[in-house]
Automatic annotation (TrEMBL), chain A:
This is Gem-associated protein 7 isoform X2. Residues 1-28 form the SUZ-C domain. Coiled coil: none annotated. One of its GO terms (biological process) is spliceosomal snRNP assembly. It comes from the Eukaryota.
From TrEMBL, chain B:
WD repeats lie at residues 55-96, 96-129, 139-180, 262-294. This is Serine-threonine kinase receptor-associated protein. SMART domains: WD40 (SM00320). One of its GO terms (cellular component) is SMN complex. PROSITE patterns: WD_REPEATS_2, WD_REPEATS_REGION.
Length: 129, 320
């Protein structure tokens, strides 16, 4: 009998993070009570400010994607953290721009035929248009 | 009928959980923040473990995390050489405090107006959050990286633990070390209990309790394995500890006897803390999870439900 302890029942498991959101639900009672001024207002002035911001964001995104396209096949200089600077021929980026596929990566240890660079390590890229 | 503990697993982190802290009890319950090597500290509802949000911004492992009493502000210490202050309601980053090396520990004063930081550059810093542009007050003295720094004695003094195997008590105004404790081994964790002025220190396999004013030893207990963190229950009737053997130990504080041990984690336990109401304790592990454990096993609280024997028809039974 001593080995037959019943496990405590549980209503459900704790909710985990949402995949596409950083959370902090603005409709939660706590948020509404403590941050009334950050609630989106329905007035037209703030509406157009949102639209303008959206337009600018879309424009910047398009510019970024076109730059990636233009970079394809070109020799690019990557400035990275820890004062690392390398040159390579840029191939492609993955869909979330987490990794950059390059070839002939020049490193202090020699030339790497094929390599993947972690985007979060890259501070800037430069190339000749 | 004796019940078996069902820990609640909070998933979401992708790397080891190295620090955790509870807020005080607020009108919306209490909250829990977890520091993780994945660089993304998370806020959770304290009594259920439900995820509320992730603080995004750090570019390296987050080594320390804390909440203010009201859970309106959060602070984090990271390997990207910064400490950050966050709005814990919106999740927005409020302040970035640049340091010269990895930051390991952050702690708010009771009134949340000042933030104490400590890390690998061996210097304690006090920031006035009302004047973030001003230079912080600096307290030097440790000869190795600072692991943990805490306000104590009504925010008039500071307790710090470092890799130089000392715990030092500093006066905030004179910036002098009032007392120093030396150990044979590195101090793995420190907890300060304002009500009763008790300091809980772990090193090697030992969990030791000190008077926070005099740094006199009250008592010490040795565990079966190397301990990384321990926490004293608010009512001071028991304490819990966890470390290298993946288990959580529960001890009677008065008699120092081991009462229970719980398996569940798949890696060493790095941090453990009691909730402010003492009803549960949370543990963070190398396995990337946080687990919530009941203090009184079988009691209805949070997501745990007390089911009377005649109602056990298997419907709610979700033992993991």
């Amino acid at each position: 009998m001593s080995g037959m302890k019943t496990p405590v029942s549980v209503l459900r498991l704790p909710r985990g993070p949402e995949p596409n959101s950083r959370g902090f639900d603005p409709t939660s009672p706590r948020f509404i009570a403590l941050c009334p001024t950050t609630l989106p207002s329905s007035s037209s002035s703030s509406g157009s400010a949102d639209e303008e911001e959206q337009r600018l964001r879309a424009e910047l995104r398009e510019r970024f994607l076109r730059t990636l396209l233009l970079m394809t096949g070109k020799r690019v200089r990557f400035d990275m953290h820890e004062h690392v600077r390398v040159h390579a021929r840029f191939g492609a980026s993955d869909i979330d721009v987490l990794n950059l596929q390059v070839c002939d990566l020049e490193t202090p240890l020699g030339v790497q035929r094929e390599a993947l660079l972690r985007s979060q390590d890259v501070i800037a890229c430069s190339f000749e248009v | 009928m004796a019940m078996r503990q069902t820990p609640l697993t909070c998933s979401g982190h992708t790397r080891p959980v190295v620090d955790l802290a509870f807020s005080g009890i607020t009108p919306y319950g209490y909250f829990l923040i977890s520091a993780c090597k994945d660089g993304k500290p998370m806020l959770r509802q304290g009594d259920t473990g439900d995820w509320i949000g992730t603080f995004l911004g750090h570019k390296g492992a987050v080594w320390g995390a804390t909440l203010n009493k009201e859970a309106t502000k959060a602070a984090t210490a990271a390997a990207d050489f910064t400490a950050k202050v966050w709005d814990a309601v919106t999740g927005d980053e409020v302040l970035t405090l640049a340091h010269k090396h990895i930051v390991k520990s952050v702690n708010f004063t009771e009134d949340s107006t000042c933030l104490l930081t400590g890390g690998n550059d061996k210097v304690l810093r006090i920031y006035d959050l009302g004047k973030p542009e001003a230079e912080p007050l600096e307290i030097a003295g440790h000869t190795s990286a600072i692991k943990k720094a805490l306000w104590c004695n009504n925010d008039q003094q500071i307790l710090s633990a470092a890799d130089d195997r000392t715990v030092r008590l500093w006066d905030k105004n004179t910036k002098e070390a009032v007392k120093t404790l030396a150990f044979d081994a590195s101090v793995s964790s420190m907890e300060y209990i304002p009500d009763g002025e008790i300091l809980v220190i772990t090193y090697g396999r030992t969990i030791a309790f000190y008077n926070a004013n005099s740094l006199d030893l009250i008592k010490a207990v040795d565990a079966p394995a190397s301990i990384h963190s321990a926490s004293l229950h608010p009512e001071k009737d028991f304490f819990v500890a966890g470390g290298d053997d993946f288990k959580l130990y529960k001890y009677d504080y008065t008699t120092k006897e081991e009462m229970e041990s719980y398996k569940g984690h798949f890696g060493p336990i790095h941090c453990v803390r009691f909730s402010p109401d003492g009803e549960l304790y949370a543990s963070g592990s190398e396995d990337g999870t946080l687990r919530l454990w009941q203090t009184a096993v079988g009691k209805t609280y949070g997501l745990w439900k007390c089911v009377l024997p005649e109602n056990l028809d298997g419907k709610y039974n979700t033992a993991i």
